[in-house]
Amino acid sequence: MTILITGGSGCGKSTYAERVIASNPHKKRYYIATMQVYDEESVRRVARHRAQRQDKGFTTIERQKDLGALELESGCAVLLEDLPNLLANEMFDGGDPERIIPALESLNDRCGLLVLVTNDIFSDGVVYPDMTQEYIRLLSRVNRAAAMMADQVIEVVYSIPLYIKGGTSCV
After folding, report:
1. Beta partners for residue 58, in sequence order
2. Looking at the domain assignment, is residue 96 inside a domain?
3. Per-residue pLDDT at 54
4. Is the residue at 170 inside a domain?
5. Is cis: bond before 120, omega within 30 of 0?
6. pTM of this structure
7. How would you classify the pairing of strands 113-117 and 160-165?
8. Structure confidence at residue 170 (pLDDT)
9. CB–CB of 157/13 below 8 Å?
10. Could you tell me if 127 and 117 are in contact, meaning their C-beta atoms sit under 8 angstroms apart?
11. Fewer Cβ atoms within 10 Å of its own Cβ: the N or the C terminal residue of the chain?
12. Which residues contact 88 (CB under 8 A, 6 or more apart)?
């Protein structure tokens, strides 16, 4: 099963995604962390996320780029946090954004449970510089591909899950 979780910044997506993984019987749980730590804000955010998932049985894998090269055993549970960071790393740090969708498809085929976290950055109506517009365009492409392969798509709003595709509660 693949679940895509989306929502705005600070809405509770990560907490909900961790609950989804924790509520399923998969014994082998991986947390793929894509965030690059550049400043004090990101240090605090990473620390908060680590504390939040402590004692939930995750093995953390730091993987900022080249997701497709990651070797995981078949049938495991994976939480990928998150698609926007992965895309930014591939676009702006010497990677290749074109390898993201094939890597997601590969994970989709191998995992017993795959939970993908993304952000809704598409609603502000601001016109950005060309490079930012390209990032937004590519993220929408990655999100659409993830939503198509997902069995469930859930938007988290103020910590409340809203089921967009695939039924009811998975927690």
Report:
1. 29
2. yes
3. 85
4. no
5. no
6. 0.93
7. unpaired
8. 67
9. no
10. no
11. C
12. 135
